[in-house]
Every structure is written in C-alpha cells, then in structure tokens.
C-alpha cells in the first residue's frame, strides 16, 4: 500500500467517470453514421458493419481478461493501460485512411472494456463502505447513458465538424482520464494471488468470437447458412472446453465457483436478457424514426432529430443512477431489478403498439431509461456485494460482458424480424417493427421473472439487533457502518 496520503475518493470517482464515459460513448457514436462512413471510405454496407462487430468482439474478450489481470497485479496500472489502448485506438480511427485500418483501430479500442470492471474494483477498494453502492450505481448508469448519449451527439458532431471527430473527442477525453489516473488514483491495496491461466483465456476468446460473429452476420448470411450453424456449433464446443479448463486451472481466469453463486448467476441471467432488449432498441429505433412517413410509419427524422428522440432515456438513466445507492439500502437490490424490468417491459410495449406520434416515442424512451437505469445499477451493486473483494473486477466485468453478448443476440434477432418482410420500396414493413419490439417486450418480461430468482438479503429484524451487530463489529476493531455490515452479510449469505 502506498505510504503517501490517498486522494479523496470523489477525485478518484471523477477520473473513473471520465474514462468510462468515453468508452461508453464509443459504443454507440458510430451507429447513426455507418452510412456516412460507408460512403467516405467507399465500402459496402455489409463490410462497414464490422466497424461495430470488431469493437464488440474485442471488448467482449478483453473485459474479463483485463479484470482478472487487475485483480492479480493491481487495478490502477491496468486501468491506465486500458485507457491508453482506448486512446491509441481512437487516434488511429480518427486518421484511418480505409476500412481495414478503421477496423483494426476499433479492435484496439476494445481494450477500453477493461475499464469497467477495474473501475468497479477501484471503487470497492477506495470508497467508504457506505458510498460503494451509490458510486457503483452511478458508474453502471453511466455506461448505459453513454449508449444513448452517443447516438444523440453523433449528428451534431458530424454536422459541426466531420465523422473523424467522433473518435478525436473521446480520444482526448480518454487521454485526460489516463493522465489523471496516473497522478491521482492510488494503487489498489487488495490483490488476488495467482497467475493468468492462458488456456482459459484463449478458449474464452475463441467461443466469444465463434458466437458473436454468426450472431452479427446472420441477418446477411441467413440464419440457416452453413457458416452460421457451423460457427454456433464451434462456439458451444469451445465454451464447454473453456468451462472444463477453468475448473482444472490452478488460478482460473473466471472462478466457476464464483459464477455459481446465486447472487452472481441470477444477475448475469437478467443482464443477458435486458441486454437483448436494450441493444435492439438502440440499434433500430433510430432507423424507425428516420423512415419517411410516406412508408406508413416513421417520421422522416434527421440523424440529429432521431438522436434527440433517444435523449430522454439517457437523462432518466443517469438520474435514476444517482438514487440507486439509497434505494438499494432501503428496498434491496432484488426489488429494484424486478421493478426496472417491469418498467422496461412497459416501455418496450409502447414502442411496439404506440408509435404513431412523436410524443409517444419521447415518453417511451424516458420510461425505458428509468427501467433499465434501475436494473443495470442495482444488478452491478448486487454482484459487488455477492463476491469477495478480490473478485470484484472479474465478476462485474463478466456481468457487463454478458450484457454485451445479449446485445449482440438482440440486434441480430431484431434485424431478422424487421427485414423479414420488405415493401416494394425496399423499406421494412411496419409489421416488422411492431413484431420486433413486441418480441423484445416479451424478452424483458422474462427478465423480470428471472429477477425473482435473485436472492433476497436477510435484514436485521429490529433496530436493536442491527445496533448490536454493528456494535460488535466496532468493538472488534472493524470500522464499518451499518450499511457495510449489511453488505458483508449479503456477500456471506450469497457466497455459497
């Protein structure tokens, strides 16, 4: 542990928020501008989608690996390395002369995925115990806000500058965050002993690639294509081999015993299902509202205007994240996840059946921000409380990673539904969007049912018993608050 005075935790939080915020923006900034990038770089529509796919694959692979490396060797410098990779990738993308270089740059940017679990781990190490849930909730909400805010900002940035600045601006923010992390974030005092098991790391990479490539390409290749079926089969085999290797590894990359904890696997299942619905909405709602009204639906919105229609979701997600810490202590994380899924299901149903007026879109995006903001923030806090401190980074990293995998599934399934029936104009039929958003509402409803499986923490029956419990901890020299005592009890109860 460093002997110098440790910086105030609020300064640490500001640096974490800046770096993670830049990574979150880069997840979605390019979505509304793929057609512009396609024209600028003189490539095809199917080829330009790899600008998204490459980033998704890289982040999915690197998030749990860097989380584990941080747990072993110290979170500070691995966090700095993740931000450095994100900055280098952003600069390379900004000056990319062709599609191949841009795709390579997006792969490098995927290193920034490690900032998520490392940031959560740093919070648990550095923050007062009663501030951990709130800080984790805000950062978790920030990752979701970045997804919607990127779509909102893309149009104004391109109109005022050009598409290259979609990478310059996050790159500059990342550089500032990296310098701030070097100067002000203390080295983590908590480590998990061991080394990196490279066979599980390779197998993890293999099955994620084998899964995400066909899910991303199935709408163009066809779900029944031999390549899609073959890659999905390979993904299953590699996933089984990965689990086997993790169980046999002396120092597993991801502890399967940890993943079996009720407080972990239940929240991961909900994250997968919510990811399906959220990414499908972010990917296809802009396309829906940009469709000319002459098609019988849509509003003929510009890129900037379609982004503004998604703005309420980002605002409400972040606003909800500010109160998740307090709500978690009062109501419990399980209640918030269930409530968030129910609210999200209602909003998705609005997209399916109430989309003839612009105000309906604004209301629905605001409502879905409340629902997913509650669920994402509370899920992350649940996972943090369910694992030992030394496994925080890898556990939260896998939760975020599973959400990304769910997003890939959702985007691919939504694309297949929407494009199943095309009008003579070449535009999707209105029924495709209605069916697609209806299916996503059903998926989020299943997420609400899955959230009922999340263990409920035991609470002291009376104020007297709570005070006695805290008094015992204080007398034994453990300087914790009532909230942290409850958190450790939750971790203990969910642990096995």
What does this protein look like?
- The protein is mainly alpha-helical and 496 residues long.
- It folds into three domains: 394 residues, Up-down Bundle (Growth Hormone, Chain: A), CATH 1.20.1250; 54 residues, no CATH class; 35 residues, no CATH class.
- It contains 20 helices and no strands.
- The longest helix is centred in the first third of the chain and has 32 residues.
- The chain starts with 8 loop residues before the first helix and ends with a helix.
- The C terminus is likely disordered.
Supply database-style keywords.
496 residues, transmembrane transporter activity, 3 domains, MFS, mainly alpha, globular, Growth Hormone, Chain: A, transmembrane, MFS transporter
Q: Can I get a quick summary?
A:
By secondary structure, the chain is an all-alpha fold.
Kindly, what is the distance between the CA atoms of the first and last residues, rounded to a whole number of angstroms? Answer: 30 Å
3D shape: globular
Radius of gyration: 22 Å
Number of domains: 3
Mean pLDDT metric: 77
Low-confidence stretches: 459-496
Subcellular location: Cell membrane
GO molecular function, one term: transmembrane transporter activity
Protein name: MFS transporter
InterPro entries: MFS, MFS_dom, MFS_trans_sf
SSE order and pairing:
Blueprint: H1 9-28, H2 34-40, H3 45-48, H4 50-73, H5 75-94, H6 99-109, H7 115-126, H8 129-160, H9 165-184, H10 198-221, H11 226-248, H12 256-259, H13 262-290, H14 303-331, H15 333-353, H16 358-386, H17 392-418, H18 430-451, H19 463-475, H20 482-495
């Amino acid at each position: 542990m460093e002997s110098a005075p440790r910086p105030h935790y609020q300064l640490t939080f500001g640096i974490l928020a800046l770096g993670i915020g830049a990574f979150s923006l880069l997840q979605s900034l390019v979505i509304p501008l793929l057609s512009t990038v396609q024209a600028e770089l003189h490539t095809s529509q199917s080829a330009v989608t790899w600008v998204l796919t490459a980033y998704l694959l890289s982040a999915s692979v690197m998030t749990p690996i860097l989380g584990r490396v941080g747990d072993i060797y110290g979170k500070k410098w691995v966090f700095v390395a993740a931000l450095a990779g994100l900055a280098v990738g952003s600069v390379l993308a900004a000056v990319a002369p062709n599609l191949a270089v841009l795709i390579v740059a997006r792969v490098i940017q995927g290193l920034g995925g490690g900032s998520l679990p490392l940031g959560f781990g740093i919070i648990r190490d550095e923050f007062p115990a009663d501030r951990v849930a709130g800080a984790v909730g805000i950062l978790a909400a920030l990752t979701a806000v970045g997804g919607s805010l990127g779509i909102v900002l893309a149009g104004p940035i391109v109109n005022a500058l050009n598409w290259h600045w979609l990478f310059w601006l996050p790159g500059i923010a990342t550089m500032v965050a990296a310098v701030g992390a070097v100067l002000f974030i203390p080295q983590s005092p908590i480590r998990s002993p061991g080394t990196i098991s490279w066979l599980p790391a390779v197998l993890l990479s293999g099955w994620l690639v084998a899964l995400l490539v066909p899910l991303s390409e199935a709408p163009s290749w066809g779900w029944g294509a031999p390549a899609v079926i073959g890659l999905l089969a390979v993904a299953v085999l590699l996933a089984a081999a990965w689990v086997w290797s993790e169980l046999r590894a002396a120092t597993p990359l991801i502890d399967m015993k940890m993943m079996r904890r009720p407080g972990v696997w239940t929240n991961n299942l909900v994250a997968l299902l919510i990811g399906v619905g959220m990414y499908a909405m972010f990917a296809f709602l802009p396309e829906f509202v940009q469709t000319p009204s002459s098609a019988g639906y849509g509003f003929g919105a510009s890129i900037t205007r379609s982004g503004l229609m998604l703005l309420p979701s980002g605002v409400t997600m972040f606003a909800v994240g500010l109160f998740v810490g307090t709500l978690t202590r009062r109501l419990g994380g399980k209640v918030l996840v269930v409530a968030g899924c129910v609210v999200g299901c209602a909003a998705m149903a609005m997209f399916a059946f109430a989309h003839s007026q612009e105000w309906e879109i604004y209301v629905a995006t605001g409502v879905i921000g409340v629902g997913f903001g509650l669920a994402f923030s509370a899920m992350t806090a649940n996972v943090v409380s369910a694992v030992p401190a030394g496994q925080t980074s890898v556990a939260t990293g896998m939760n975020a990673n599973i959400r990304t995998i769910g997003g890939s599934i959702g985007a691919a399934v939504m694309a297949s539904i929407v494009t199943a029936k095309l009008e003579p104009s070449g535009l999707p039929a209105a029924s495709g969007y209605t069916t697609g958003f209806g299916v996503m509402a059903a998926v989020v409803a299943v997420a609400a049912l899955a959230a009922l499986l999340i263990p409920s923490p035991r609470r002291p029956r009376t104020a007297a018993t709570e005070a006695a419990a805290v008094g015992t901890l204080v007398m034994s020299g453990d300087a914790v608050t009532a909230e942290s005592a409850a958190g450790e009890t939750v971790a203990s109860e969910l642990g096995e």
